[in-house]
Amino acid sequence: MDFTMTLYLRHYWKDERLSFPSNTNQSMTFDGRLVRKIWVPDMFFVHSKRSFIHDTTTDNVMLRVFPDGKVLYSLRVTVTAMCNMDLSRFPLDTQTCSLEIESYAYTEDDLMLYWKKGNESLKTDEKISLSQFLIQKFHTTTKLAFYSSTGWYNRLYITFTLRRHIFFFLLQTYFPATLMVMLSWVSFWIDRRAVPARVPLGITTVLTMSTIITGVNASMPRVSYIKAVDIYLWVSFVFVFLSVIEYAAVNYLTTVQERKERKLRDRLPCTCGMPHTSALMHSSYSDVDVNTTGNYSMPEENGDKRERILVQLALADDRTGVVGKSPRSYASVWIDTHAIDKYSRVIFPGAYTLFNIIYWSIYS
Question: What is the reported pLDDT for 191?
Fold first, then answer.
């Protein structure tokens, strides 16, 4: 919330008491010792946090007096001033800061301040560059400042616009966060029974996102509003967290379904009358894992082998306890246990891509 600037501050005024006769009309130059013996403007930097006049190897102060009494007073100053930055669009933001110069004791009636040549009074080094910002433009203005106890004062403004470089934050924040979100999607293609593979993957991506968020906030001012980078990181964190919740849901539903299968299988009557019983049983024990008893393999449809659960429902007579023999006594229910993972493979990337399109269209 501040900036530091080194500048040559040059004052021009006319004091006829300092005029002197000269045949060559040449000026006389003095160092800082004469400054203490004549009148000079009492300028100060408004909203300054720190400022000092350079003194290596001597005080960087110069006083030049012309024969007609015109005076040039120059000094080299480094000032750190406050800049009220709006970080709601950080790091895609543009900031406008100003350095304000004002007389401390003399009001408008006593001292008039103005820029000698308007915007041309401000000269900047073309080689100046900042690591995080691009300096877009400088301009000067003059306004009046009012203090209730002392009156009106002339105030000079040096206003400049800074646009933040985004490439550093793309490499350090946005790309790692995006890669972590994409890494969390890998679990959707891992077998739902591979708990040691899917759980550590989800936890690792969540912890990595937490580290990225902490690192970004550690170098930022503690503002009370949400920044653009916060929106991106927290939405990415939510996507990573939801991928962990997705597997928890898949694992829980799979466990519940297997438990129901086991109960229904214990209640099944003799299936002697069912056609192709031996082939069905042979398929179930040859193609299905031991941990998923009840998962029967279906023939390939359109080249894809569909994994289903065959549940046989026996309808019993509550009064007699005799199982009905009608053709409708048995029913087959096919439940796709991979439905959540299959939908997640499409929904998660699609939703995150849509979020990125909206985010960059708003803030870029």
Answer: 84
Which pLDDT value is given to residue 298? 45
Span 265-280, pLDDT tens digits: 887 765 555 554 444 4
Query: For residue 107, what pLDDT is reported?
Result: 93
| Secondary structure (H, E, C), 145-210 | EEECCCEEEEEEEEEEEEEECCHHHHHHHHHHHHHHHHHHHHHHHCCCCCHHHHHHHHHHHHHHHH
State how far the Cα of 164 lies from the Cα of 10, in Å rounded to an integer: 30
CB-CB neighbours of 97 under 10 Å: 19
- Give the start-end residues of each E strand in the chain: 2-14, 28-30, 43-46, 48-53, 61-65, 70-82, 94-103, 133-147, 151-164, 295-297, 307-312, 332-334
Report yes or no: 80 and 2 within 8 Å, Cβ to Cβ: yes
What is the reported pLDDT for 328?
43
Beta bridge partners of 139: 159
CA angle at 77 for the pair 71 and 83, rounded to the nearest 5°: 120
Q: Could you give the C-alpha distances from 40 to 13, 18, 71, in angstroms and in order? A: 9, 12, 10
* Tokens 């539903």 belong to residue: 253
Distance CA 209, CA 69 (A): 67
Q: Distance between CA atoms of 40 and 42, rounded to whole angstroms?
A: 6
Whether the pTM exceeds 0.85: the reply is no
Instruction: List, for the chain, all residue ranges whose pLDDT scores fall below the cut of 50.
Output: 276-337
DSSP 102-146: EESS--TTT-----SSGGGG----TT---SSEEEEEEEEEEEEEE
* CA 301 to centroid of chain Cα atoms: 47
The predicted pLDDT at position 272 comes to: 52
| Cis amide bond preceding 176, omega within 30 | no
What is the residue-averaged pLDDT of the chain?
A: 82
Confidence (pLDDT) at 61:
94
Query: 184 near 239, Cβ under 8 Å?
Result: yes
